[in-house]
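Hey, quick one: can you model this chain's 3D structure?
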Amino acid sequence: MVRKTLTLVFAVLISALGFIPAGTHLTASQAASQTAAAPSFDEIAAVLAGLPGEVPSLAGLRASDAWKQYAEAIEKSWAELEINRLAPMRTWADKELIRVRASSAFLFYPFGGPDFLTAFVFFPQSESFVLMGLEFCGRLPRFDLWTASQSEAYLKDFSVSLSDFFAKSYFITKHMDETIYGQAQVEGVLPLICFFLKRTGHMILGIERIEYDPEGKPVAVEYDKGKRFARPNGIKIRFAASGSDQVKSVVYMSSDLENKIFTKESALYKHLGFLPPGLTTYMKSASYLPHYAAFTNIRDVILEKSRFVFQDDTGIPYKVFKDKDWRVVLYGVYAKPIADFKGVDQPDLEKIYKDGADTIAKFPFHLGYHWRDSRDALLLAEKKS
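Sure thing. Here's the predicted structure for all 385 residues.
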């Protein structure tokens, strides 16, 4: 009885904060009636995903040679990604993450940027996804209002914005800055998240912008209220799998998590304090930021709120988990950080991998900075009760 009461409290709390409560279901007719603008968002995302559609205002673009060539290239890249990365990830996760998935209705992905795809492949049953990154939220393109040359230029830039992720499994901040700012270029990370949603078989039901009041409570603002917002700000997308009435959500927060900005008095820190306890945190390609003294506040939030932390070696240092008495399972092969990152070696973790070389299980896919040699390490930590 107590557990059911707590679950209800968390559901109400999350709903009040702008997240979809776990277990919420709407019928298709209810979803359609609540999201009159959703077809426009969904159709624009389908164009980005290289998928067919029937909206007349976009028929001209879909009939163009530029879009047909773009769609063909996207289909080819996605098929390769599916074979080389996504399918092996699913097979592995279906076996290794069974217990974690059962407790992961809420998935927290700090330092993840717009990478909804990796989180979804590992945790497809999750109902609320929260992503965080430095990049601004942005808007979807208005192909219906643009000239053919404008649309063609956008599609070309959008392809470039995806190239690092397809090849390496992560977005490079410097390259993102080059492709998501500017007049004819991709505006923010929203188009990338919507691309992943469509490519994983979802329908986008609605999009709203979020700002945070001084107490950390989210405030919905108009979708078209200007191009930029002062950090922290966010965007919330409600979506459902094709043929399903279960409504889920992904929230992206544009935020700086360094201690001098992410103070305990900041609106975002207070907001994350409302997150439900016992959630699952996922991290990869995090630039080793949780290793540094300048990022201890977000590290403490993760440790306090999480039951499970699933990450590569760029997340929270192994020593922190051992010192705080978490159960840890290791996978893969440890390799020293690539040359871009200094002072974040983990000799203790390296020794454990070396001593357990014959017993630590490998995994059949690549994720992270060691894309040249695929020497990847994964760590699954569970908080002891």
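One thing worth noting: The chain has 14 helices and ten strands.
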